[in-house]
Amino acid sequence: MDTSTFVLLFLFLTQLLPGNALILVNNAPRRVNKVLKASNGAPWGGWGSPQFCAEGTYAIGYAIKVEPGQGSGDDTALNSIQLDCKGLDAVRSGGKITSREGPFGHWHNEVTCPTRNGAPTFLTEFVLQVEPDQKSGDDTAANYVKFLCRDFAALTYPRELAIPPGHGLYGRMGSWSGSCPANSAICGLRTAVEGDQGSGDDTALNNVTFYCCEENPEAGK
What we know:
The protein is mainly beta. It has one helix at about 5-15; strands at about 20-25, 30-35, 45, 50, 55-65, 80-85, 95, 105, 110, 120-130, 140-150, 160, 170-175, 185-195, 205-215. Strands 1, 2, 3, 4, 14 and 15 form a six-stranded antiparallel sheet that branches. Strands 5, 6, 7, 8 and 9 form a five-stranded antiparallel sheet that branches.
């Protein structure tokens, strides 16, 4: 298959979302069964490439990169989101993934989903805190993200997972995204980030999409 044919095939497959789609990333197929979107994403910046956990692994925890308040300076707040991927045994690593990343701030310590009755739980739903357009004021766009953790089969009630203090400096939480279906969990993400504006108003991370994946019985064959 030549390069142009592969690109056309990839674009076709990505347009199948949010139905049952087979996404090719780093030659590892993922079976996406739902796309989770923020209700309140900000409008600035461009989307990065979708990034996915290794086949058979799902997001079990997350970290965020945040710029602290700059006083009278230019604030950007949330700059990046990282997912920690593990297998259904919570042992096998699927790597840590990020999409597009803003240049400001530092990483906060990762938090992970708790076990329930000895079984791991995974990220299955999210909510984004966003500051609305400040017009002539200092915009920060996305400030914070938190999740719900649930067992893979959806047999237990989900519990909230949030990096302290549980909120950002500016804006309000939107609506919860809706949950991954039973027998699936978050397996990938894509972020929209505004690049460094120089002497202009920086906002960094503006929006995020997460992908739910189910097990792929064809993997490894």
